[in-house]
From TrEMBL:
<dbReference type="InterPro" id="IPR000873">
    <property type="entry name" value="AMP-dep_synth/lig_dom"/>
</dbReference>
<dbReference type="InterPro" id="IPR045851">
    <property type="entry name" value="AMP-bd_C_sf"/>
</dbReference>
<feature type="domain" description="AMP-binding enzyme C-terminal">
    <location>
        <begin position="414"/>
        <end position="493"/>
    </location>
</feature>
<feature type="region of interest" description="Disordered">
    <location>
        <begin position="505"/>
        <end position="524"/>
    </location>
</feature>
<dbReference type="InterPro" id="IPR042099">
    <property type="entry name" value="ANL_N_sf"/>
</dbReference>
<dbReference type="InterPro" id="IPR020459">
    <property type="entry name" value="AMP-binding"/>
</dbReference>
<feature type="domain" description="AMP-dependent synthetase/ligase">
    <location>
        <begin position="16"/>
        <end position="363"/>
    </location>
</feature>
<dbReference type="GO" id="GO:0006631">
    <property type="term" value="P:fatty acid metabolic process"/>
</dbReference>
<dbReference type="Pfam" id="PF00501">
    <property type="entry name" value="AMP-binding"/>
</dbReference>
<dbReference type="InterPro" id="IPR020845">
    <property type="entry name" value="AMP-binding_CS"/>
</dbReference>
<dbReference type="GO" id="GO:0031956">
    <property type="term" value="F:medium-chain fatty acid-CoA ligase activity"/>
</dbReference>
<dbReference type="Pfam" id="PF13193">
    <property type="entry name" value="AMP-binding_C"/>
</dbReference>
<dbReference type="InterPro" id="IPR025110">
    <property type="entry name" value="AMP-bd_C"/>
</dbReference>
<comment type="similarity">
    <text>Belongs to the ATP-dependent AMP-binding enzyme family.</text>
</comment>
<protein>
    <submittedName>
        <fullName>Malonyl-CoA synthase</fullName>
    </submittedName>
</protein>
<feature type="compositionally biased region" description="Basic residues">
    <location>
        <begin position="514"/>
        <end position="524"/>
    </location>
</feature>
Amino acid sequence: MNQNLYAQFEQRFPHDDGAPAMVLPGGRLYTYGQLKSESARYARLLTSLGAQPGDRIAVQVEKSASAVFLYLGALRAGCVFVPMNPAYQRGELAHLLGDARPHVFVVRPQAAAQGRVLAAAAGVPHVLELGDDGEGEIAQAAARQVPRSAIAQRSADDLAAILYTSGTTGRPKGAMLTHRNLGVGVSTLHRFWAFEPGDVLLHILPIYHFHGLFVALHCALWNGSAMRFEPRFDAARAVALLSSSTVCMGVPTHYVRMLGEPGLDVAACRGMRLFVSGSAPLLPDTFNAFRRRSGHAILERYGMTEGGMFASNPYLGERRCGTVGRALPGVSLRVVDAGGASAAPGETGQIQVRGANVFAGYWRLPEKTSEEHTVDGFFKTGDLGRLSEDGYLTIVGRDKDLVISGGLNVYPKEIEEVIDALPGVRESAVIGLPHPDFGEAVVAVVVRDTSIDCTAVPQAADVVGAVKASLAAFKVPKTVHFVEELPRNAMGKVQKNLLRERFASGRGASAAKNTRKKRQHDPA
């Protein structure tokens, strides 16, 4: 049996080729029949360029229907799809092209000149253009092809895609994802989130990232659903489209911005079945405000590039605010202490996972792959968390974001929760900066709430006082900075590495310093 992921999708497509697959702004509609024929044309084009099963197809383009056809065409041809963030610049692209060594590189017309130079340096044979509107050189070339009806034979362990990690702690690494990894991942979510005939997905995410490509798009294709396929997120438009959708997947920023739209209410969401949030922590204020306004509790889940989804709040049952739910079916999830022993319920430790959805390893980095796995096959996520008695997982932060002050571990999430609860605070981020006595000093970066109905204006003393009243003294910020906004990546994750760089270099005035004698925080 052919384990090619595309073959698995096509078996589940609607029997009626006229069933809608993607509805674009302006009303343009692509059917499932067109999805099959257009992806077949792209598959034929790639093979005409000499691409063989296992060859990489690197793609740095914006979201469009043609980009979906290209992705599915690459799968049909047995190639390995390598999506790249359109925001990547010369240095990042040079590394990725040199590392992935693709046979074809598809790039936006405005970046084509640079792309050709970098591709030539990396030995990439073919560079083709695809515009933000889905038109361009590769679309025209595909239109001239006779559709390739054959689907390349692939085993479950063959690679389907390589996704590069963000590289916040070094150069990006390519996570190798097999047809089994992706097939198991989408089939699990399809069942767990109770997809049903007639579901319509409001697709507001980019498709160079796991969330938009391998969660949102895959779930719709697996279900044979129609998608409201939005090239970019617009809060007002998203709210307007809720009435003709049943499922929405987004990042916390999307839900915050939808809350800013007066049209968001129970009536606008009357046909909605499910709202899912991921890629970054969902603040309790956002969760609660959205439930009040929409009548829906957002379902928060947990995953990462190296394996997709690991845990989820239930479709039926308690969606516990501040947690990412329990381990998904087929996933083994544990929290361990520094010595590798299982942490007790409620204790913070490192999150490790194992399952058929977990990636095959890092591309061309066998030593790194081995280093990031335990002897019994668990992947070390690098995230810190704690499990409740009944198995709900709370994410505390990244292992690399752990602050060690005076020899004591400080988990930023714990402090951020206290600060975020203060009147007049919109959100916060806690980081560690070098300190001559303590090794690292706890530093809070705070965004004030500037909304019209917010009269509180918190000062540094308020922040320090609130933490001091709630937590141990060694967790109290020694410095508080106020900023207009926190830096985030395209998926809404706060980039604490940028905050560390900014404030370690002295840019931005300190609002206050909280000085103490060193002996107060030395471990016994």
